[in-house]
Amino acid sequence: MPPVAFPAPTAASGGDIASADPLRYLFGYNARSTARSLAEFTRAAGTAWVDTLTRAATPLEAATRGLLWLTAMRDRRAPDWHLPNDIVLSTPFAHLRDFTDDAHRATDVVPTLVLPPQAGHSSTVVDFSPAQSQLAVIKAAGLTRLYSLEWRAATAATRHVTITDYLDVIDRSIRRMGGRANLVGNCQGGWLAAIYAALHPERVHTLTLAGAPIDFHAGESVIAASTIALTRAFGLAPYRALVAVGGGNMPGRAVLGNFIGIQPHSEIARQLQLLENIDDPAHVERYRVFEDWFKHTQDIPGSFYLWLVEHLFRRNQLISGDLVIDGRRADLAAITCPLFLLAGSTDHITPPAQLFAAADAVGTPREQITRRTANGGHLGLFMGRDALREDWPPLLEAVYEHSVPRADPAAGGAGAAERTLAAATAVADPRGTRRVPAP
């Protein structure tokens, strides 16, 4: 497993074996991961034998299937946005995309701004496909004045972009949207949203965080354990070396390698499952859409990356209250708006404890904090059909209720149940569909 594509803490905390004894944790984790990979090979081999006997396939037929398999694995395309939108603000490192339909521009609802993950992949994960779109679910929930930032791939010209630049583009976006917005932050977009909300609480109406590390040292994480072991031995030198190799930026391919290395059995299962279902056009298309997003990487600005390594993953300053940006302390206690937290029960990238720590750090009244745990892992929180149909709609309904004037019963219109149902049905029903294994 490449241990240096992601940063992590360097000091033990909370008694978790991942931080207290990282080498022991990694030994056990890698042993389990190897066993799962071998089990997947064994399962696939057995399926292949049964399939061969059932089909009575000729060598030519077997070769044809193998060629189709290889072609499908190599047929990659750049991911794209699916919902209609316009770029209304642009910088060299980010675009602001407006997904508001013309018919809803005058709607009396607080606008919503989505901050996608930023971990070496395209921001289109929040609009993953026509059948799996977080943005479509948000719109269907009644939050129709909808915007999303798009993090652009780093270049030589943007390698010196800083945390200040990212916070500034969020502020410019919200000002353009009217000066106050609901913030939805996914993964690294979540800690960025939390920092912005701590510095500008007057501009954040509600804050929703999904799979976002807030206490970077909490829980058991292979990412944390591997990097703790590395930094104890070498400090930050490996991270600086990676940025140097990337010409001043963090290479997206290194981040992808780390994702695959953490759960190799998912990669193995996905490719072998493709071979088993190569005659099923629907499965091949689901595979292609995921691989197009997952394998299409983009670099991260080097200065920004090294900043987050030092101040968040290593020093854990967001949760400690010691984070200072441009002379201002980013104190989570300054956040008093309604807070919604969504974690994945099997999230190995951001264990639930890393997210739920926000509940104890903010100044939001306890009765206005909602915690929810979805069944599944990390990426499924943003693009998985189960989370989009079952977990996001009730959270978004609560955000909506905070975002419109108190309803007049005589005014008519869709009620809470209708909005929640509309949000759920904005995503294709996953029943009866074989999942494409994802990290």
From TrEMBL:
Q: Mind telling me which InterPro entries this protein's record contains?
A: AB_hydrolase_fold (IPR029058), DUF3141 (IPR024501), PHA/PHB_synthase (IPR051321)
User: What's the superkingdom here?
Assistant: Bacteria
Annotated region (Disordered), positions in chain: 410-439
Q: Which GO terms describe its molecular function?
A: hydrolase activity
Q: Does the keyword Hydrolase apply?
A: yes
Q: Which UniProt keywords apply?
A: Hydrolase
Low complexity compositional bias, start-end: 410-430
Give the protein's recorded name: Alpha/beta fold hydrolase
